[in-house]
Write a structure and sequence with these properties.
With 121 residues, the chain is mostly helical. The chain is built from 6 helices and no strands.
């Protein structure tokens, strides 16, 4: 009985991932069908028949632009921004990695130049 309660509690907790389909049962997932997990917006009957969705989409480009910018700002508010210490750490790691890769590729380039020069010299 506790296993059943744990399954329903785990199913109710948000995981941060989108579900594969709204109508799909809990036992079959996206991995069963090989599909990509998406949430489809249901199309209203009047939009489907009259093509209203296409007309609304191309009606006013300024409204669409402002809507897009509002959605971008809303998504940026959800971002967990790094603090100063994390940013310095991340930047240092990236710079050290870039310096290492430049040295490694330069060494390989020098080795290939010497090898070609010795072979065809």
């Amino acid at each position: 009985m506790t296993d059943e309660r744990d399954d329903t509690a785990a199913a109710q907790r948000p995981s941060g991932k989108r579900s594969a389909r709204r109508g799909r049962s809990a036992t079959s997932g996206a991995s069963d069908t090989g599909s990509i997990a998406t949430i489809d917006r249901p199309v209203r009957k009047d939009e489907k028949k009259s093509g209203r969705a296409d007309r609304d989409r191309s009606r006013n480009p300024f409204k669409r632009l402002f809507k897009f910018l509002r959605e971008v700002i809303a998504e940026l508010r959800k971002v967990i921004w790094p603090n100063r210490k994390q940013m310095i750490t991340y930047t240092t790691v990236v710079l050290v990695f870039v310096v290492f890769m430049v040295a490694f590729i330069s060494g390989l380039d020098l080795a290939f130049i010497k090898g070609v020069d010795w072979l065809f010299g």
